[in-house]
Amino acid sequence: MRAKNASDYVFKEISVPKLTPSEASKCRKLCEQNVCKCYGTNWACPPGVGNLGDCMTQIRMYKHAVVIYHRSEVNMKDQDGLKRLSGILQNLLRDFRNLLKENGYPSMCLADGGCNYCGACAYPKECKFPDQRVGSISAYGIMLMEYLEDNGIEFRFEDGYATFYGLVFYNEKDEIAVA
């Protein structure tokens, strides 16, 4: 397992997703199946993240998107290793988003699964660091495989490998966010 710094990742500008209520609802139904064990335990996941309409509205406020990803050789049974790689990506997403915000660019970021900033989320108690929260891609109604393929990025499952994806949405300094 690798991925220690930003140079290990691919950064690619892509289109902002064109969310539809039917596709977004499919994502939320996947969340409700709770395969990732984050549903109802994390502010980045349903129901804590908010209703689907509000999440879709947040995405529609942005005009630009960047996907950040890294393919790693992994043992899929090594849950600690998978969490570590996910955490590295989330930290990279936070750093990128924070840099954008510090320079006047409105922005937000999403990744697979729940936010892991605190280790153990305070949910349902108030989020301790809402400005550092990384939302769940599925919770925001994005069908990741279709979205990436629409942007020319191959999405595949392979034995012994995992690709970790994150999204950063932003506006230019002078662009007004309108849903």
UniProtKB/TrEMBL annotation:
<dbReference type="Pfam" id="PF10050">
    <property type="entry name" value="DUF2284"/>
</dbReference>
<dbReference type="InterPro" id="IPR019271">
    <property type="entry name" value="DUF2284_metal-binding"/>
</dbReference>
<protein>
    <recommendedName>
        <fullName>Metal-binding protein</fullName>
    </recommendedName>
</protein>
